[in-house]
Specification:
Largest sheet: 5 strands, parallel
Distance between the termini: 61 Å
Strand content: 5-15%
Structural class: alpha/beta
Number of helices: 20
Helix content: 40-55%
Oligomer: single chain
Strand order of the largest sheet: 2-1-3-4-5
Length: 470
C-alpha cells in the first residue's frame, strides 16, 4: 500500500530544493510525494494557510522570515504539520531549540540521503501513531464543555495536545477502562516528543509481585536479597532520557508510592541493596482504570503523588459510548490488517456494521481490533460480512422493542433506557450536592472521574448550572 505525503520544501537556494526532491523520490519509492516549494519562511507560511501539509522540510537561515519564526507560526496554525529543519553544523543550537518548540527533527547540511529518509520514515510512523490515537477519542483535561466537531477538528485537537506536550516535560496521567488505548496514547506522546530517540519502557504495576516491584523499578545490586545472583538495571535507568510508562498505577502499594514520589521530586533513586544514588532523567506517563479520588479518600493512594502525576490528565471513553466511531475504527483496522496479511478487503457490510454497533464492547477498542482481525482471517470475499463475525457477537443480548410495563414503571420495557434515566438523575443530584465541583463529586459519589466526565457529556449536563447554587 502506497503512503501519500504532501510535502513542502522550503529553502532560499533552488539547487538545494531540487536535491532534496530528488532524494525523496529516488530513495523512498514506497511513498507518493506530492511536492511544492517555497523560497522563504513567509512564502511557506502562506502555503500552509492555503492547504494542509504532512511534512515541511525547511531551512533555518532564510530572508524575510527565518525557519524558527516560520516554525512557530506553522505549528500555531496547524499542529498536525510535521516540520523538519535543515541547518548547517554551526547552527545546531538553533535546531535543538526548534525541537523544543515543536519541530519534529533536524537534518544537517549538506543533506545526507540516508539520514533524511530515516527521519521522513519516522515522521510518517509518528503521524500514523497520532492518527490512531485520535480514534481513541481522548478528552484532554477538565474542560468538560469542549466538544470535538468532526474528525478533522478532533485530529487537530490531538496534534495540538502533542504539540503542547512537546514543549514541556511534564508528567501525564491517562485514565480509562481496559482496552481503550492508554498505552497507545503514551507511545504517541513519547514518539512525538524530544525524547523520541530515548527508550520507551512500559511496566504494568498490577502484574509485578509486590516484593519484586522495587527491584523492577529501581534495580538491585548482586546479593541484595535471596535470588539476586547478579546486578540488575531497573526500569527507571533503562528509560533514562526517555519515557517510563507506568500502567495500572493505582495498584502500587503505599510504600512504593512514597518511593515513586521521591523520584518525581528529586530526580534520583537508590537501587535495592545499594548506597549509591542514581540520577534520573526520565519522563513519567502513568495510566489507570481505578477511581483514584475514591482511593485518596480511603487513604490507599497518596494525594501528593496524585497531584504530581495529574499535571496533564487525559480521559479515554469506552467504546460503548461511541457507537458513531465504530465504522471509522473498523475501517482503520481493516487497512491495518490489509497491510499485515497482504489481503484485499475493502470494507464491511451494512449488516455486519449494524451488528458491531449493537454490541456493548466490554473489551473496548482492543476487543474490536481482535474481532476485525478474526474476520479478516475467516472472510473469503472483499467485504467483511455478517458470517465472518464471531458467535459471541451474534448471541449477545439485543435491545428490546418499545414495549411498556403494565404497572409501576411507565417507560419503555428496556433495562438500558431505564438505567440511563436513573443514571442521569443520580449524576445531576450528585453535582447539585457538591455545587458542581468535579473532584468533590467524584470522591463523594464514588464514581471514577473519567466516567463522570463522560456521562456529563453524554447526557448534555451543564455543570455551570450547579456551581452558583447556595
Amino acid at each position: 500500500m502506497i503512503n501519500k505525503m504532501n510535502t513542502l520544501i522550503v529553502d532560499d537556494e533552488a539547487e538545494l530544493r531540487r536535491s532534496v526532491i530528488s532524494i525523496l523520490k529516488t530513495a523512498m519509492p514506497e511513498i507518493e510525494f506530492v511536492i511544492d516549494e517555497a523560497s522563504n519562511g513567509k512564502e511557506a507560511l502562506d502555503k500552509v494557510k492555503e492547504q494542509s501539509w504532512d511534512l515541511v522540510l525547511m531551512d533555518v537561515k532564510m530572508p524575510e522570515m527565518n525557519g524558527l519564526e516560520a516554525l512557530t507560526a506553522i505549528k500555531e496554525h496547524d499542529p498536525r504539520t510535521f516540520v523538519v529543519l535543515m541547518t548547517a553544523h554551526s547552527n545546531l543550537h538553533d535546531a535543538v531549540l526548534a525541537i523544543k518548540e515543536g519541530a519534529y527533527d533536524y537534518v544537517e547540511k549538506p543533506v545526507n540521503p540516508q539520514t533524511l529518509t530515516e527521519i521522513v520514515r519516522k515522521s510518517l510512523e509518528a503521524r500514523d501513531l497520532v492518527s490512531s490515537l485520535a480514534l481513541s477519542n481522548p478528552i484532554f483535561d477538565d474542560d468538560i464543555e469542549s466538544e470535538f466537531v468532526g474528525s478533522s477538528q478532533k485530529m487537530k485537537e490531538v496534534f495540538n495536545l502533542i504539540y503542547r506536550l512537546c514543549k514541556v516535560d511534564t508528567t501525564v496521567l491517562i485514565r480509562g477502562e481496559n482496552g481503550t488505548g492508554k498505552e497507545l496514547v503514551a507511545r504517541a506522546i513519547h514518539f512525538n516528543s524530544p525524547r523520541k530517540s530515548g527508550s520507551f519502557v512500559a511496566i504494568n504495576c498490577g502484574a509485578i509481585p509486590e516484593n519484586l516491584m522495587e527491584s523492577e523499578l529501581f534495580g538491585h545490586e548482586k546479593g541484595a536479597f535471596t535470588g539476586a545472583i547478579e546486578r540488575k538495571i531497573g526500569k527507571f535507568q533503562m528509560a533514562n532520557n526517555g519515557t517510563l510508562f507506568l500502567d495500572e498505577i493505582g495498584e502500587l502499594r503505599p510504600d512504593m508510592q512514597v518511593k515513586l514520589l521521591r523520584v518525581l521530586q528529586e530526580k534520583k533513586f537508590t537501587p535495592v541493596g545499594s548506597n549509591r544514588e542514581v540520577k534520573s532523567n526520565t519522563r513519567i506517563i502513568a495510566a489507570t482504570n481505578r477511581n483514584l479520588e475514591k482511593m485518596m479518600a480511603d487513604g490507599t493512594f497518596r494525594e501528593d503523588l496524585f497531584y504530581r502525576l495529574n499535571v496533564m490528565p487525559i480521559f479515554l471513553p469506552p467504546l460503548r459510548d461511541r457507537t458513531d466511531d465504530i465504522q471509522a475504527l473498523a475501517q482503520h483496522f481493516i487497512k491495518k490488517f490489509a497491510r499485515q496479511h497482504g489481503r484485499v478487503i475493502n470494507g464491511i457490510s451494512e449488516e455486519a456494521l449494524d451488528m458491531l454497533k449493537a454490541y456493548r464492547w466490554p473489551g473496548n477498542i482492543r476487543e474490536l481490533e481482535n474481532v476485525i482481525e478474526r474476520a479478516f482471517i475467516v472472510e473469503n470475499n472483499q467485504m467483511i460480512s455478517l458470517d465472518s463475525l464471531p458467535e459471541s457477537l451474534k448471541l449477545a443480548p439485543k435491545e428490546s422493542g418499545e414495549k411498556t410495563a403494565n404497572v409501576g414503571y411507565k417507560g419503555p420495557l428496556d433495562f438500558d433506557v431505564f438505567k440511563e434515566g436513573m443514571e442521569k438523575e443520580f449524576i445531576v443530584s450528585a453535582l447539585k450536592a457538591n455545587q458542581g465541583r468535579i473532584n468533590q463529586t467524584v470522591a463523594q459519589a464514588n464514581i471514577p472521574k473519567n466516567t463522570l466526565l463522560r456521562k456529563i457529556r453524554k447526557y448534555g449536563i451543564n455543570v455551570k448550572d450547579f456551581t452558583n447554587e447556595e
